[in-house]
Amino acid sequence: MLLKRIYDHSGDTPKLDHVKVLRAKEGAQNFSTRFVQNGQADGLVSVSDGQITLHTQPELTFDIVRVPGYYCCYCNQPMSDGAAARAHIAEEHDGESPDSNNPAGYRKDNFYACERAG
Fold first, then answer.
1. Is residue 43 a contact partner of residue 6, using CB atoms and an 8 Å limit?
2. Rounded (5°) CA angle 60-109-30
3. Residue 53: which region, alpha, beta or left (left: phi > 0; alpha: psi -120 to 50)?
4. Sheet hosting strand 106-109, strand order edge to edge
5. DSSP readout, the chain?
6. Residue 79: Cβ within 10 Å count
7. Closest Cα to residue 109, out of 96, 99, 95?
8. Quick check: 31 and 114 in contact, CB under 8 A?
9. Stated pTM of the model
């Protein structure tokens, strides 16, 4: 996704007028927690009812598929923390992790996994 801030230069100091979407793909989009937090502080992003809305021109809405947190690599079930994930894997799953990047069998996502709303 490519966004461009458009400023109004009619006064003494430039003032943010709007944010324009230059490029946005259909389908999956991940938003970092930093982008969401900074966007909320700036009024560019809102999160409610399982959706992230970008107040841009045009406005874009995304359905949240997964929130940041710990997840089992075997079944994608959310976990409360690393200890709970290790206990879950020991009880429910056998063998080598299906994700070679996460050999412990669980991962910590630091982003909102989203799908563009139609």
1. no
2. 20
3. beta
4. 78-79, 69-72, 106-109
5. -EEEEEEE-SSSS-EEEEEEEEE--SSEEEEEHHHHHHHHHHTSEEEETTEEEE-SBS-EEEEEEE-SEEEETTT--EESSHHHHHHHHHHH--SS-S-TT-TTSEEEE-EEEEEE--
6. 19
7. 99
8. yes
9. 0.85
Q: How many whole angstroms separate alpha carbon 76 and alpha carbon 10? A: 51
Any idea which residue has 């979407």 for tokens?
21
pLDDT tens for the chain, residues 1 to 118: 999 999 999 999 999 899 999 999 899 999 999 999 999 999 999 999 999 999 999 999 999 999 999 999 999 999 999 999 999 999 999 889 999 999 999 999 999 999 999 7
Residue type, 97: S
- 42 vs 19: CA distance, rounded Å: 11
* β-pair type (78-79, 28-32): unpaired
Residue pair 96/87 in contact (Cβ under 8 Å)? The answer is no
Dig out the tokens for 50 from the structure: 């399982």
